[in-house]
Design goal:
This protein is an alpha+beta fold and 191 residues long. Helix content is 31%, strand content 34%. Helix 3 crosses helix 4.
Length: 191
């Protein structure tokens, strides 16, 4: 419902489809992180991707349009921050497959980065959005690394059954949207 200054009220029907949800996985995580920040629960942000701007056009005095840019270096992971004194670092990935998550969706430098975070005592993981199943799972880096090692001699994906067995299902809620810190609490308690 939109209330305009002239006292007219317009109802806006918002359709949420699986395709819209998939397109907004990152937005759902960003909304969750904004909720955490606003409620002083955690400070977790999306990392900016370092780019080198090569060409800019100035169609007007107040606006500039980047016409050409390149990534300076490969980015590490999508998100990082701090929660109750614990450094958190994670990557968000999605797949349309209903049977497995292809390990090719994660770049080797990202896997190495997640491994280093874990090695130094941080909490690292990937969030996997299975679009067609409409489910989000948190998979700790230690399990991701075991699947990566296996892929060097065999399977190049993580089956849905393995994601269910080793990952944590995160139920979507209104606020926060994807409350992954509930899972982090469980991980911290396990030590």
């Amino acid at each position: 419902m939109i209330n305009y200054p002239n006292k007219k009220t317009t109802f806006v029907e918002k359709k949420i489809t699986h395709s819209n949800r998939g397109m907004s996985f990152e937005n759902m995580i960003n909304d969750t992180n904004e909720y955490y920040l606003a409620h002083n629960i955690a400070v977790i942000h999306k990392k900016p991707i370092p780019i080198q701007i090569v060409k800019v056009d100035y169609p007007s005095r107040s606006g500039a349009v980047i016409k050409e840019a390149y990534y300076k270096v490969p980015s590490t992971t999508d998100y990082n921050g701090i929660y109750h004194g614990h450094y958190i670092d994670f990557e968000a990935k999605e797949t349309t497959s209903t049977s497995s998550f292809p390990l090719s969706n994660i770049h080797p430098h990202q896997i190495e980065h997640l491994s280093k975070i874990e090695e130094h005592g941080g909490i690292s993981f990937i969030l996997i959005f299975l679009k067609k199943l409409d489910q989000v799972y948190l998979l700790e880096t230690k399990y991701l690394l075991s699947f990566v090692m296996r892929s060097k001699v065999g399977r190049k994906s993580i089956s849905f059954a393995e994601i269910q067995e080793f990952g944590y299902l995160i139920k979507e809620s209104y606020s926060p949207r994807i409350d992954y810190l509930k899972i982090i609490d469980e991980i911290i308690k396990k030590g």
